[in-house]
Write a structure and sequence with these properties.
Structural class: alpha/beta
Number of domains: 3
Radius of gyration: 22 Å
Strand order of the largest sheet: 17-16-15-18-19-21-20
Strand content: 15-25%
Distance between the termini: 48 Å
CATH superfamily of the largest domain: Vaccinia Virus protein VP39
Number of helices: 9
Amino acid sequence: MPPRPRRESGRNPSGREYGNRSGNRSGNRSSHNQSGPAPLFGKGSTVRPQKDRWPLAAEHLVSRSLDLPDELPQVEVKSPTRQTAIFRKRVSDVGPRAKHGDIVQVMLPEGDVLGYGIFNPRAEAMLKMLTWEQERPDLAWWQGQLDRAMALRERVGVRQHADACRLIHAEGDGLPGVVADIFGDVLSIETYSLGMFQRAEALAAELVARTGARHWMIQPAPNTLDTEGYTHPGFTSEKLPRRKAITEYGVTYEVDFATGHKTGFFCDQRLNRHQLRDYCAGRTVLDLCCYSGGFSINAAKGGAKEVTGVDLDETAIAAAKRNANLNHAKVRFVHADAFAYMRDMQRNGTQFEVVVLDPPKLIMSRDGYDEGQRKYYDFNRLAASLVAPGGMLVTCSCSGLMPTEEFIKTVTAAVPFNRQPRMLARTGAAPDHPVSLNCPETEYLKCVWMLL
């Protein structure tokens, strides 16, 4: 069974829905194979059929090791590039032995070796480069990449204040197409490419050896059918707990691996959630697209006079209420459409001294950039109108295709004409989410702190 389609909340003024924090994970009880690990929780549902892209056969989804054969297939590209993703139009020739998910030797027309990458003929980005060096990405190479990723997390001290963090951040750690988070003793892996899905179980074993994790889960990203031509419900180690309690700067959260979005929890906003406390003492706070209540609970911890969290996802609201209870935080959570709620507040003349807006990824592809930018404008237009004079708007975007400067311009344009916005800070993801300068999209999270 394929994964559940993305659930969204909120509507723009024309009534089109688009607004929870992120897409839901898959969850179906059919196992990865008859003798393999346990399946994910929950029930599956269908994905809209693709007229020209049916899911790959099961033979293409078999787990692979991190070892390499003696000889690798070759793929030729038209010219050198430092971009991690090499699209179909830049590929000039594909060797006959290159198969779905293979690691291939990437060649230039002159016969020189550009490097090595993962190949998928079904993807528009046919190659995901692993290295531009002569060194083959064999088992020792993969182990070296993981060791460097672990060393970075140790150096920046992310686990001094939290027992959850990102261990692998795709291109930011030189491993395009895969992210991995750890929640206490549970490892959660999400794959964005076919080749990384095939190697995810081997990666999990390496990460378990480095972290001492007792459990793990693996799932493809929600849109892999469109981007990579495959779908799968995901799979887990045996006896994976349904939920896991973690702590972050003294706040306890319950991560639900059955219903949580993405890897189960958003580690990227860790520092921003903590920073919000500094601005909330004695103030009224509105948290839009609140998901499991991270910003709301930190506002309450910061001494807010009144906190309201809004989300259309009923499961997320239930999780947010559990998290608030765990922390003895007084928060009013509202199960509502974000746009309808904001319009109601406008009509009532209700304003808040701090408004947090953290919507889902609204720009999914370059073709959808303009539409996504309009959505950000619509969201921020309404949110800014609810900020009391002299109050703060904390507005976020997790769309990697939208540069920070463009996001700031869009938000500024959305502020009512009679208000004078001032930016106090612009922040991003926590340092366990390193940015690859060869892949600007890894700087995906943008958080702008504005006085209005």
